[in-house]
Amino acid sequence: MAQGSFDPTLEDWGGFFIDPYGFGKQTPLMHNLAEYAKYDEQFPDHPLSKLRSYLSRVIGSLTFDPSLEFFGT
């Protein structure tokens, strides 16, 4: 395999790609263990880590008008 290329069908990746729904499917765009938030602290400059940090701040800053409270019941 050429440098910089990636073949997710290689068997030596055992356990790295997972089916988040537990059905054991193998597809080209599998969820992988590197996508877990627990690695964000180790890789703060990774785009996914940055996105999760940003979304956390956005969600934490949301406020709703009290007149909308009835929608939550």
Protein model, in words:
It is a single chain. With 73 residues, the protein is mostly helical. The chain has a domain at 34-61. It is built from 1 helix and 2 strands; from the N terminus they run ββα. It has a two-stranded antiparallel ribbon with strand order 1-2. The longest helix is centred in the C-terminal third of the chain and has 15 residues, at 47-61. The chain is elongated, with a radius of gyration of 19 Å. The N and C termini lie far apart (56 Å).
Features:
73 residues, two-stranded antiparallel sheet, single chain, 1 helix, 2 strands, mainly alpha
Short structural summary:
The protein has 1 helix and 2 strands. With 73 residues, it is mainly α. It has a domain at 34-61.
